[in-house]
Amino acid sequence: MNSFNEAFPYSHPRMPVMARNTVSASQPLAAQAGLRMLLAGGNAVDAALASAITLTVVEPTMNGIGGDLFALVWHEGELLGLNSTGHAPAAWTAEHFAGRSDMPKVGWDTVTVPGQVAGWRALSERLGRLPFARLFEPAIDYAERGFQVTPQISRQWAQQLPVLKDQPGYAAAFAPEGRAPRMGETWRFADQARSLRLIAESKGDAFYTGALAQAIVAHARQTGGALTLDDLAAHRPEWVEPISRRYRDHVLHEIPPSGQGIAALIALGLLEHHDIGALDSAQAYHLQIEAMKLAFADLNAHVGDPRHMASPAEALLDDAYLAERSRLIVPGRASAPVAGTPRTGGTVYLAAADASGTMVSFIQSNYRGFGSGVVVPGTGISLHNRGEGFNLKPGHANCVAPGKKPLHSIIPGFITRDAQPVMAFGVMGGSMQAQGHVQMTSRLADFGQNPQAMCDAPRWRVEGTQVSLESHADPALAEALRAMGHAVEVAGRDSLDFGSAQLIQTTPQGYVAASDPRRDGQAVGF
Minimal CA–CA distance to 167: which of 100, 248, 107, 98? Predict the structure, then answer.
């Protein structure tokens, strides 16, 4: 068990929640929905699911019913992994995308089979206590009776409207008055309530083989989509063995590919060979950035659906390979990343924990905000654009093909020490997620920070060779990194490019739960 570091070194810190049972989510109403399940006798899995289902209603700008999910669950002394992400439609052949150089970003040709609903059921049946339908009650209530839209969500809604308004079904569903709802307005969505009730009553069958499946496929036929009833009916959630990497005296666990979690493990394997330096020093930031650049180079070159990877995860995490790659990191000098050659062989995140010791690290997403922009009329189902994650490079592990899963950005994280649970955590935000996992793990393992301090600390993000720093980073840090050769920009105060984190850490007395001020996050407990 872990002692609690009482230092809060950053300006305007939040205080964490300390309790025997707790939920930390990206929206307060969703966190409270999970707490209701715990108070009703449910466990952390019930709480996580109720929060996740509620998030599809109260934070539609970041997820919806038609998305994917991953989860890591510590239960009865074992860490379990669930991959409930969907596959490409059978019609997505090379000929289907002929003439394109890149995958589209919106519309039907980004819609893979949504796996999320089946994942809800799989978690509930294997690990939950409460009846499946009970978990939907808060979400259905908010969809029917309405909720007040927060300033953050109103802003995100308005930003996405110009891009998505012409996609089939979007404007009628999410901009019925020709605009996004304003801050404080009450948003109701009866169609979504009816769909959630159908899913609850059928334990998800309505979505894959019943009335909702028929509505999805009918909309596809009418508006140019490729999804069929056979595509939907073929989906199955997968229980998977998590992959892991020791870093200092902690172990970070991730879902294996097709998720990008392996990039965080690669980066930590590279950092293991370097002295990280002092807390928040330019040296610490430089080394982490360089390790992440190399990890992303390998991720983008080698990772996709594991059934199509020439280099398996084990080869990319091989000790000798990582030691060799670590020599490409030069203290004090930025470099351009290149992929190695290993041996062949819009998102919401939440965490929940209960007094029995069960801990859940859970993430679901429509990918970019609302997703594809395609909304099924009369259902409130917004379909994700996860297919954008494929590429069109013949022979590549992540090249689009029928029945294949794309490389995923969403990843839940879990840290153990001496085979005991330490922290369930995640950082939302596209490629920021693996980078966020590296930063959180280092702050815990290298510097012993508490979850709220880890959450409040200024983050970095690297895309290619461009480094971004948060606005509250020390100005001297940017100058020091530039002197090392990094291309550095300091983001605006309202930037969402650095993700949003939720963390729950164990202590001898219970849990410490942290939420992120960058979004509407809230931790609750009792």
Answer: 107
Catalytic residue among 56, 347, 358, 379: 347
Q: If we measure between CA atoms, which residue out of 497, 392, 504, 487 comes closest to residue 444?
A: 504
Q: Are 253 and 245 in contact (CB under 8 A)?
A: no
Q: CA–CA distance from 516 to each of 14, 24, 50, 367, 437 (Å)?
A: 8, 9, 20, 20, 14
Angle between helices 44-58 and 190-202 (to 10 degrees): 150
Can you tell me which residue has the tokens 């970095």?
460
Q: What residues form DSSP beta bridges with 489?
A: 468
- Separation of alpha carbons 62 and 119, rounded Å: 18
Q: List, in sequence order, every beta strand (DSSP E) within 20-163.
A: 22-25, 68-75, 78-84, 147-148
**Measured distance CA(397)–CA(345) in Å, rounded:** 14
**243-261 pLDDT, tens digit each:** 999 999 999 999 999 999 9
What is the per-residue burial (b if ≥16 Cβ within 10 Å, else e) of 45-81? bbbbbbbbbbbbbbbbbbbbbbbbbbbbbbbeeebbb
pLDDT in tens, 126-171: 999 999 999 999 999 999 999 999 999 999 999 999 999 999 999 9
Quick check: 74 and 414 in contact, CB under 8 A?
A: yes
> Beta strands 375-376 and 78-84: pairing type?
unpaired
Write phi, then psi, for 225 (nearest 5 degrees). Answer: -90, 165
User: DSSP H helical segments within 128-239, as ranges?
Assistant: 137-145, 151-164, 170-174, 190-202, 205-208, 211-223, 229-233
Judge whether 54 counts as a catalytic residue. Answer: no
Indicate left, alpha or beta for 357 from its phi (over 0: left) and psi (-120 to 50: alpha).
left
The whole-angstrom separation of Cα 322 and Cα 340 is 10
Nearest to 43 by CA among 128, 122, 139, 136: 128
Q: Nearest-CA neighbor of 428 among 38, 24, 58?
A: 24
3-state secondary structure of 502: strand
